[in-house]
Amino acid sequence: MTNPQHLRYTKTHEWVGYDPATKTVTTGITEFAVKALGDLVYVELPEIGELMEIGHPFAEIESVKAVANINGGVGADITEVNEDLPNNLEWLVSDPYGKGWIAKGKVAGPDEWNRLLDAAAYGKHCESEKH
Fold it and tell me: Is 3 inside any structural domain?
């Protein structure tokens, strides 16, 4: 599994990208999470205007094995959702860090993003969960 270096990660397997020019975050679930869930059947997206809060569910994903919350890695006002994702769940498998994004939002700055795990720390976290 390759965790893109330019992203940050949560211990609950969400990824967050940050664009400092626009103060916008993009978030989704990691490849590790997708593999753990198995065959995906449904994703419930948040509404534009909702608040994404650190550690709180803002979306939900369902597989044949389980239903899982997707938690906020940073605080943000949701400005955009990937409306094509529910009809293209395979994007979460084939391109979780690209086409498989879930939501975008405005943040005040990089402070919360900088507190998330970098790719190396997230990789170690995933290794610890495999045992």
Answer: no
The pLDDT tens digits for 75-125 are: 999 999 999 999 999 999 999 999 999 999 999 777 888 899 999 999 999
Domains of the chain: total: 1
Tell me the average pLDDT of the chain. 94
Under a CB-based contact definition with an 8 Å cutoff, are residues 115 and 18 in contact?
A: no
Say if 56 falls within a structural domain: yes
Closest CA to 117 of 131, 104, 128, 103: 128
Q: What is the pLDDT of residue 113?
A: 86
Report if residue 98 sits inside a domain.
yes
- The per-residue b/e assignment along 47-77, b for 16 or more CB within 10 angstroms, e otherwise, is eeebebeeeeebbebebeeeebebbbbbbbe
Q: Which domain holds residue 54?
A: 8-130
